[in-house]
Amino acid sequence: xxxxxxxxxxxxxxxxxxxxxxxxxxxxxxxxxxxxxxxxxxxxxxxxxxxxxxxxxxxxxxxxxxxxxxxxxxxxxxxxxxxxxxxxxxxxxxxxxxxxxxxxxxxxxxxxxxxxxxxxxxxxxxxxxxxxxxxxxxxxxxxxxxxxxxxxxxxxxxxxxxxxxxxxxxxxxxxxxxxxxxxxxxxxxxxxxxxxxxxxxxxxxxxxxxxxxxxxxxxxxxxxxxxxxxxxxxxxxxxxxxxxxxxxxxxxxxxxxxxxxxxxxxxxxxxxxxxxxxxxxxxxxxxxxxxxxxxxxxxxxxxx
Length: 304
What we know:
Elements: E1 10-12, H1 44-52, E2 55-56, E3 63-64, E4 66-68, E5 73-75, E6 90-95, H2 106-112, E7 117-121, E8 133-136, H3 145-158, H4 174-186, H5 194-202, E9 207-212, H6 218-222, E10 231-233, E11 253-255, H7 256-270, H8 285-300
Parallel strand pairs: 6-7, 6-9, 8-9, 8-10
Antiparallel strand pairs: 1-11, 2-3, 4-5
């Protein structure tokens, strides 16, 4: 197996059928190929780097391919050769302290969207405003992305002196989110440019928290009292294409980079209320290449 075969952290989503790739020669089974049709930058730079082989990280001296997961820096490729993704909101990733850095896909997000992604190692958690931050994590109180904006507004409306937040409105339709945004914009007088309108649509969400760990280790972080007041969001209708699936775990457990990508895609469509044209596809730049390399290696080894 190639040295590129990295393990990944998992996030739980819900049930769905993934897109089937047209080229079945590069996949073990159709359900494992949801990466077809992404608008990605050329992988030529990664192909060349792979041909050269592993190099030593200039900072820590570790043997690395493409990037150093310890130093969060590129190895064998330059910043100008990889895509840069601008995100509409800030992403905070809380990483479990006992997890090996080389097994995390969180580094992908940091390298590809450096100005919008921050990685913390638990127990370090940034100061979070419960009125403007959500936690992407499943649970009995978790809501969909469509319901998320209304839940945050409910928290604000409940006031700082109300200890308990109002329950979130379930099954909020996309039209409800659009109408609420429109009414908020219309209530303010004076001309507004496109940037201001876009910002008001995002309001009140400013920050999203993801937990980066294996599923069996998530409870230590998810039950931390500093995260308890946050609205929890559950990603629905998604399946992972993780190439080293954990035994006994369903395929609705997403890697961290998958969870970030799917959240942003749904946020773009349901909260910004805009058609999606691949704005965040390059967050899967490294992930999609590693997926293809591992899948081809398994096929050649007759393991598919």
